[in-house]
Structures are given as C-alpha cells and as structure tokens.
Amino acid sequence: MPSRRSLLKLAARVVETTSRIRLAFAAACPEADLIRGLPGALLPLSP
DSSP string of 13-43? Predict the structure, then answer.
C-alpha cells in the first residue's frame, strides 16, 4: 500500500534578478504546476 506522504525531490535552475526569482523546472517535472501555484496561495488575502 503506498504511503500518503511522499518525498518531493526537485531539480530546478534558479535565476535571481533585482525584482524577482525565477525557477526553471525540467519538462518532465510532474509537480511543476503545483509549485507554480504556491506563491499565489501563500500571499495574504486582502481585508
């Protein structure tokens, strides 16, 4: 029976500029869409 928790192993190229940080994932990365959505999910909601 598979475990409900899994270890997330990623490789990404990080490019840092003065105003943003960009991550470049491999084309075969199945979690890329999930990780792209994280910054928006972590922003506080407006009052």
Answer: EEEE-SS-EEEEE-TT-TTHHHHHHHHHHHS
